Amino acid sequence: MACIVPPSLCQTEDLGSENLQKLAKQLQFYKPPKPIDEVEENIEHVINDVPSSVNMRERRAAVLICLFEGPEGELRVILTRRSMNLASHPGDVALPGGKMEEGDEDESATALREAMEEIGLDSSLVQVVAQLEFFLSQHLLTVVPVIGLVSRIEDFKPLLNADEVDAIFDVPLEMFLKFRKKITDLRRENGGDGSMLSIILISNPSKESF
Predict the structure, then answer these.
(1) How many C-beta neighbours within 10 Å does residue 59 have?
(2) What's the CA gap between 77 and 172, in Å, rounded?
């Protein structure tokens, strides 16, 4: 089974790779600067078209930042290309993810479920090590980035949901880091802490428009 909560109790030794173990240990103690529940209370008061009785859980979503080690020891991240048949953001590059459903225990469970549904990523292959600072989507959903590490990427046999995903691919995490200063500045302008990994959300991951 995937280790999803609490991340600090996950066994980093199970990751095998020294690089992944080191990354896991660094991330396990990360604490988002703003508690999501407190912020959601404020959001609830400013959404004019949503009754105050609405369960804010219904306005939560999560994306999976799935990292693994490449053949040369480099960290790589799994991305998808959204189906051209989708009503919103067809053809966009995205992280696996979507809205929280009733049966999801938390945001990590949401991210893992969506990854399974979209690309066939078995949750048993993923070790969740952190939930990063959430961000607000254009439709005021609170989206939580979940970092999951895959040590046995060779065991991952992609199975795409053609209704949602046209393609799956991976790229070096370094390509995002090269844009660190520019994206960090943008994040800070929007009230974030500039954390680099929380910036990897450069695409709309949901089947719906966030």
Answers:
(1) 21
(2) 6
